[in-house]
Amino acid sequence: MDKLKLIYSIIIIILYIPLVFLGVNVFFPEYTAQNSYFYNDCYIKVVQPESIREINNTETEKCIKEQEKLRLEFEKNKNAYESKKYIAVTLFNLVVLILTLFLPLDVSILLGLFTASTLSTFISTVRYFNTNSKIGFVILVVIFIATIYIINKYKDKLLKGWFMVEFNQNWYEKLLSILKKI
């Protein structure tokens, strides 16, 4: 694979990853940007006389308990919603991986889509790790199996694409010669 095709692969990778994460935020806008964290209104500091301060301390404690209940509910709802985002991202990546199996693609496109969907799956897993999504886990296992299958099926093309050498018995020596040139 020549350098121009490698550039095409890198372009696909650079565009694919933001496409996936921007898309998930567009189609799942809740709990994003300014709505991604919980607000607490209990700590308004006002200069007060001593007698009023004691009354306000009990009100503040009551407010804190109420806010904690609201925060826990907010976090539970946010986690459930982000689980849907994770499922959407991993499903999209799985579809792309499956398409790379059946479409007759140029090696640069195959390499770009394969690498980008794999990286995007990894980033989304790190990003949405706390969702503990069972469906997301099942999809991740299927992606893992599909990735192994793709690597096994296209190992010659993928190695040729990344290392720009033919895969044969002297691949290690060729890789060392390329690294020495760098």
Provide structural commentary.
By secondary structure, the chain is mainly α. About 75% of the residues lie in helices and about 0% in strands. It is built from six helices and no strands. The two termini are about 20 Å apart. The model is unreliable at about 165-170 (pLDDT under 50).
What general outline do the C-alpha atoms trace?
Answer: elongated
What structural class do helix, strand and pairing data support?
mainly alpha
Q: Please describe the biggest sheet, giving its number of strands, its sense, and whether it closes into a barrel.
A: none
Radius of gyration equals 25 Å
Percent of sequence in beta strands: under 5%
Strand segment tally: 0
Helix content: over 70%
Give unreliable regions as ranges: 165-169
Mean pLDDT: 78
First and last CA, distance: 18 Å
Tally of contiguous helical segments:
6
Helix/strand order: HHHHHH
